[in-house]
Write a structure and sequence with these properties.
Elements: E1 21-23, E2 44-46, H1 68-74, H2 79-92, H3 99-109, H4 116-134
Helix pairs in contact: 2-3, 2-4, 3-4
């Protein structure tokens, strides 16, 4: 998928268990879905010349998979966890948990993935959506 002006990847890319190569050179990626960690260890990931917060490329141009965690910590994009975190927020709504408890659950599920205030924004958005829907 080189040279395609990609800005994001679907989180389902992490479910591709037979994937041997994921080449994403020369795109406009600013974040990667956390699901990439689920790819088989043998999968070679090439990320050169993107707008990522951290250069993960080794001298051979192949990303060092062990450094994906560093990228996630350096990235401030809510998009990288939004779908998974949204599922958790919606699933816990029927429990009528306080927003701070929901935030703690999200933070435990995605430690250091994004800044805490971005996680809070997501929790509040879901809480307000539910309140507006009930009115």
């Amino acid at each position: 998928m080189n040279h395609n002006l990609l800005r994001s990847l679907p989180r389902q890319v992490g479910d591709l268990t037979a994937l041997a190569f994921l080449t994403l050179q020369d795109n406009q990626l600013t974040w990667l879905p956390m699901s990439l960690e689920r790819l088989p260890a043998r999968t070679k990931i090439t990320l050169a010349r993107n707008a990522l917060a951290l250069d993960l490329c080794a001298s051979d141009g192949v990303a060092e998979r062990s450094r994906l965690g560093e990228l996630y910590e350096a990235t401030s994009e809510l998009a990288m966890i939004r779908d998974e975190a949204l599922e958790i927020c919606i699933a816990t709504q029927d429990l009528f948990l306080p927003a701070l408890v929901t935030l703690e659950i999200i933070d435990a599920a995605f430690p250091n993935a994004i800044a805490m205030h971005r996680k809070w924004e997501l929790v509040v958005a879901v809480k307000h959506w539910r309140q507006r829907r009930q009115q």
